[in-house]
Amino acid sequence: MDVRTSFATQGYAQARSAAAAKPQAAGAGQTGFAKAADGFAQMLREGEETAKSAMIGGADPHALVQALAQTELAVETAVTVRNKVVEAYQEILRMQI
Asked: Can you tell me where the transmembrane regions are (predicted)?
């Protein structure tokens, strides 16, 4: 093995361990956006589970309609937030330096 290859391998191993994600306690250190994204994903998962359950006859239609309405509201909220972020970004691009 060449010395340069050995140094490259060691450097790669050090960089990889430094860049690895650090395990955190559940919810510790999350920003408001990360918490909102987790809540959004959880809402979609719950809606999917209710829909699957309704398809096989395990959930009543009222629960299905309620889950779909909650999911629709969550998606509309996410789209509105995305639109506001894009609008703000475009406004920043229009600023003169």
From this structure: none
Distances (CA, A) of 20 to 26, 29, 34, 39: 18, 16, 19, 25
Which pair of tokens denotes residue 25? 């306690």
pTM above 0.70, yes or no: no
End-to-end CA distance of the chain: 54
DSSP E strands, 4-93: none
HSE-up (13 A, CA, CB side) for residue 17: 5
Kindly report, residue by residue over 15-69, the tens digit of the pLDDT: 666 555 565 555 556 788 889 889 888 988 988 888 888 888 887 888 888 888 9
Q: What is the pLDDT of residue 11?
A: 65
- What is the tally of structural domains in the chain? 1
Please report whether residue 20 resides in a domain. Answer: no
Determine, yes or no, domain membership for 60: yes
Domain containing 75: what range? 31-97
